[in-house]
Amino acid sequence: MASKDRILRLKEETRANILDAALRIVKEEGWQALSMRKIADKIEYTAPIIYEYFASKEAILLELNRQGYLKLAKELQLAKDDHNSPAEQLEAMWLAYWNFAFANKELYQGMFGITTSCACEMVNKLPEAELPWDIITGSISELMKIEDLESEIICTKYYTFWSIVHGLVSINLLDRGNSDEINRQVLRDAITGIIRSITP
Amino acid sequence: MASKDRILRLKEETRANILDAALRIVKEEGWQALSMRKIADKIEYTAPIIYEYFASKEAILLELNRQGYLKLAKELQLAKDDHNSPAEQLEAMWLAYWNFAFANKELYQGMFGITTSCACEMVNKLPEAELPWDIITGSISELMKIEDLESEIICTKYYTFWSIVHGLVSINLLDRGNSDEINRQVLRDAITGIIRSITP
DNA sequence: TAAATCATTTAACAGTGTTAAGCAAATGTA
DNA sequence: TACATTTGCTTAACACTGTTAAATGATTTA
């Protein structure tokens, strides 16, 4: 009886190992270099065994992204909890978003890269309460004193925020035109600018 | 003697055909589906012939991107020429940028997609006068009454502009959270906001 | 007409994701 | 203990990828 548990635990472990190996390869050699056989090598198995844990390579990428969204949500929540006023919360959250992107470059590329079009579908499959979207719009609606989280105005403001931060992030991920500090300042200016513009 | 010319002309033509076929495949089936054999099929040759015209698949992608940058620059210049004041020029140019992105979705993805890291290196290999960068910073420096196009302040403002527009574009390319009109309005607001903030 | 060059194709290599078949060890059953 | 069954894992294979070398057949040159 208990051996069943042990086996299940082992299975869960190799599943985690697969994901871990995949992410390690991506960090070392980039998304392009990720292959099933390389993953298998890293966990000291042969390739077909992976299909016992994931239906396809795509499924592995999807799961990595899912974990990325959860991780991002967790860090946003952490940043939010550190502050009381919605304005401070928003600033802290978008800075946390920025930090997440650079601390997890490859993950972020997978999650929000233009070519990986799964981002949208993926986001919708996550547990609602833990979505980055909800955590942030909460503060926006509080700041604007609008109850309905799904209202058009909240949605628009959220997208404005997201666009600016994501734009800065992605341009820095591919070009790094300015120094870190300058870009951080641009980010800060943009964020406080929007916050001011939506503060009643 | 003249036959040499004819042959050269034919060669130039098939080179263009290769690029054309590649872009058509990408538009029909996405970047992921692009393969040498498919290109060869479309131009009614076999795959190895492509290597007479391009060193590798990567080289084809690079050339497609190059053409994309030139096309974008041309449209920016066109938009610029339609207006006199630098403020109007900037608004028109960023709207043209936005329109280019959606009229050439796949091309834009290739040019500025996070995962395709060639964007930065590519841009630097283009004839200077025709770079998007130069066309836009010209108007910024005129508006701010600063001579030096390479000065830090101009550079920063350019990146601020670019980040916001690119952010809006790329999020709309993967999510389309709002309607077209709303996003266009967000874009307009953002652009006029920055223009106002840098107008002396 | 013979030689040389050119354009193009076929065949092949190493790699990819994925599936099916096989094997060998562990487990369940009598 | 002996047999049957399931499990874990590997080998072999398929269709595809980018790319290269060799072979072929047509065209130009001498």
UniProtKB/TrEMBL annotation, chains A, B:
<feature type="domain" description="HTH tetR-type">
    <location>
        <begin position="12"/>
        <end position="72"/>
    </location>
</feature>
<keyword id="KW-0238">DNA-binding</keyword>
<dbReference type="InterPro" id="IPR001647">
    <property type="entry name" value="HTH_TetR"/>
</dbReference>
<dbReference type="Pfam" id="PF13305">
    <property type="entry name" value="TetR_C_33"/>
</dbReference>
<feature type="DNA-binding region" description="H-T-H motif">
    <location>
        <begin position="35"/>
        <end position="54"/>
    </location>
</feature>
<dbReference type="InterPro" id="IPR025996">
    <property type="entry name" value="MT1864/Rv1816-like_C"/>
</dbReference>
<dbReference type="InterPro" id="IPR009057">
    <property type="entry name" value="Homeodomain-like_sf"/>
</dbReference>
<protein>
    <submittedName>
        <fullName>TetR/AcrR family transcriptional regulator</fullName>
    </submittedName>
</protein>
<dbReference type="GO" id="GO:0003677">
    <property type="term" value="F:DNA binding"/>
</dbReference>
<keyword id="KW-0804">Transcription</keyword>
<keyword id="KW-0805">Transcription regulation</keyword>
<dbReference type="InterPro" id="IPR036271">
    <property type="entry name" value="Tet_transcr_reg_TetR-rel_C_sf"/>
</dbReference>
<dbReference type="InterPro" id="IPR050624">
    <property type="entry name" value="HTH-type_Tx_Regulator"/>
</dbReference>
<dbReference type="Pfam" id="PF00440">
    <property type="entry name" value="TetR_N"/>
</dbReference>
